[in-house]
């Protein structure tokens, strides 16, 4: 995929200490939530808050003081022979955002990544019907080229499990490559990942996450943010402790056999 955008970078911290930035591969993501599947096409707000959407074994409840918005990450859509506006293809008004997420690149269907937005300087709370081991999403400010994003994770007793934050440069606001046809729009596809990983993958503990964006000087992000697909790991792909114990025992036996073989050779 072609990528066009401002030169950017990300620095990340966990509980106030600098750390390596997380990648999507670190969230096993056996239970992703796509906002199109949850709320349909981007023709308006997802509805009255809180919103609940089911996905596999986990129910997701969204809450925010600010209004929520569905949007597609694009300005232009391909109608089969030329580029046009998404409204013309959808046959109705479609909310769009020319941001740093994935978008059509030419002769491809669809209106870009399915986004969920929060309006104004407000946080988004995502609650899980049963605890998960990790959760995260790509995020970008609506209008700030440089922005900060913070995610806090809580357990079922409302204890803070940890705070993951990032400072992004050149990765927010409008993606310049989507604003022109030369001959095709060029997505930036470089929004940073905001996520939290549980300490123990065999014991899901995350019952709620809270996310928000701000200016890099700490002031509130007055226009709000968009996020992409919610990636979660509900723990069902993690081996049972008994399996882990069996694997460990097997490795011990292999080690003993190797030692015995080495002794016999000597």
Key features?
six-stranded antiparallel sheet, 2 domains, single chain, 266 residues, mainly beta, eight-stranded antiparallel sheet
Question: Strands, helices and their partners?
Answer:
Elements lengths: L8 E6 L2 E3 L15 H5 L11 E5 L2 E6 L4 E5 L4 E2 L4 E2 L1 H5 L23 E6 L4 E9 L1 E8 L5 E8 L5 E10 L23 E5 L8 E9 L9 E4 L3 E3 L7 H25 L1
Antiparallel strand pairs: 1-2, 1-12, 3-4, 4-9, 5-8, 6-7, 8-15, 9-14, 10-13, 10-15, 10-16, 11-12, 11-14
Verbal overview:
The chain folds into 2 domains: 9-235; 239-266. The protein is 13% helix and 34% strand. The radius of gyration is 22 Å and the shape is globular. Residues 1-7 and 239-266 have low confidence and may be disordered. The chain starts with 8 loop residues before the first strand and ends with a helix. It is built from 3 helices and 16 strands. The chain is mainly β. The strands form 3 sheets. The chain has an 8-stranded antiparallel beta sheet, with no helix packed on it. Strands 5, 8, 10, 13, 15 and 16 form a 6-stranded antiparallel beta sheet that branches.
